[in-house]
Design goal:
By secondary structure, the protein is mainly beta. It is built from four helices and 17 strands. The two termini are about 30 Å apart.
């Protein structure tokens, strides 16, 4: 019923807009069936996760198969400048994702070209994919991720935020301008966030399993992109501005207000056989109410990554990924004293190496090894001992995923 409710909620946004766009284009009767283009695609990915200690995506200390992604997506282009697209997804990732079936996105995209097609202006509405950083709007499929597990300093999968980060219900304005070898993109989004999914409410309030409802003004998001030579070099600046009110639904838990600002800087260079990527961002969060004095913290995350394409079928990735819960306390000492927790709960440093092989058409296997110092991005739902001061600060993770697409 939750999935049906979300589909209905999205249609209330997308359908009136679609009708308006059709009327602007001359009405449905003006459509030429010979120009209608539709596509249907899907994917099925099964992962295996093993950790030497701590747990990721289920009971991984003994090996876990609790990492599954199955999706079907389709698109219909009714006019050259009018596109409808949607994706339904089943995802299981242990304690990090308990949503099962969900509507990942369902959006209508209308655009127009100007200045001899050098400038494109457009609008997307519905359940819209969130354009943030280099990988957020392509993170849904392992084929379009650089690794099985994205850098967790920037893209919070293990903390149960995947669904809240991938899409939101609202509208997005975008522009693209081409000038020789240069392209400039601007995007601005206003939307109602999915902060009732996964562990988003607990993450924002700082209280695990917080029972209540998030309300307040919509999410504001912007992204500016510069590309050179068709994406050989890319520079981005993304920013999320969130201002939400938490209305408690449980006795003993006070209501409160959360304000968060998340700027992210991204750089990438793509040569014929190799790519270099780096992203750096911080999250400034202010919490007030909750029966406490206002608390303001600034976490930070960054990674550097190299990819090498060994052949058409083989590629490798090497990455160093760092997260600090407080950029003014990178050792975690002050936070540990204040929260009566071990220092390793407030940082994570992850050195990862991976290999992927597209062994036949539309089939891929990807494997990666992570050596991790710290536990800041581990899910307490998979690691209940973290809440009691437990957890191993030094641990290893091995991940394997087999995927098919059509």
């Amino acid at each position: 019923m939750g999935l049906i409710r979300r589909i209905v909620d999205t249609r209330t946004v997308a359908c009136p807009l679609a009708a308006a766009l059709l009327s602007l284009s001359g009405g449905a009767e003006a459509l030429d069936s010979s120009t209608i283009d539709w596509q249907l695609h899907g994917f099925a990915s099964q992962g295996f996760t093993y950790t030497t200690s701590n747990q990721v995506f289920g009971a991984s200390r003994g090996g876990s198969l609790d990492f599954t992604e199955i999706g079907v997506n389709g698109s219909v282009r009714l006019l050259p400048n009018l596109l409808f697209s949607a994706q339904g997804l089943f995802r299981n990732a242990g304690g990090s994702d308990r949503e099962d079936f969900r509507l990942d996105f369902a959006q209508v995209d209308y655009n127009g070209t100007f200045l001899d097609s050098a400038l494109t202006l457009g609008l997307r509405a519905g359940r819209v994919k969130i354009p943030f950083g280099l990988y957020n709007d392509t993170r849904d499929v392992v084929w379009t991720r650089p690794s099985v597990i994205l850098p967790q300093s920037v893209y919070y999968d293990t903390l149960g935020l995947r669904q809240a980060m991938i899409s939101a219900d609202g509208g997005l304005l975008y522009s693209r301008y081409n000038w020789g070898d240069h392209r400039f993109n601007l995007e601005f989004m206003v939307a109602e966030p999915q902060d009732d999914t996964g562990d988003a409410t607990g993450f924002l309030t700082g209280r695990l399993d917080a029972s209540g409802r998030m309300e307040g003004r919509p999410l504001f998001l912007g992204r500016a992109v510069y590309e050179w030579m068709g994406g050989r070099a890319r520079a981005m600046f993304s920013v999320v501005d969130l201002d939400r009110d938490f209305n408690s639904g449980a006795p003993g838990l006070e209501s409160g207000k959360i304000q968060a600002l998340y700027p992210l800087f991204s750089l990438q260079y793509n040569a014929e056989r190799w790519s270099l990527t780096a992203e750096y961002g911080w999250v400034n969060t202010r919490r007030s109410g909750f029966g406490d004095v206002p608390v303001e913290t600034t976490s930070e995350g960054f990674y550097v990554q190299g990819e090498y394409r060994l052949s058409e079928d083989w590629s490798a990735v090497l990455r160093y990924d760092v997260f600090h819960a407080d950029r003014d306390d990178r050792s975690g000492r002050s936070l540990a004293r204040r929260n009566n927790q071990p220092r390793h709960r407030f940082y994570a440093r992850d050195l990862a190496v991976g290999l992927r092989w597209e062994f036949v058409s539309n089939w891929m296997v990807a494997a990666e090894y992570h050596n991790v110092d710290g536990t800041a991005w581990l899910s307490p739902h998979d690691n209940s001992d973290l809440l009691k001061g437990g957890g191993d600060p030094h641990w290893d993770l091995f991940s394997l995923m087999v995927s098919f697409r059509f």
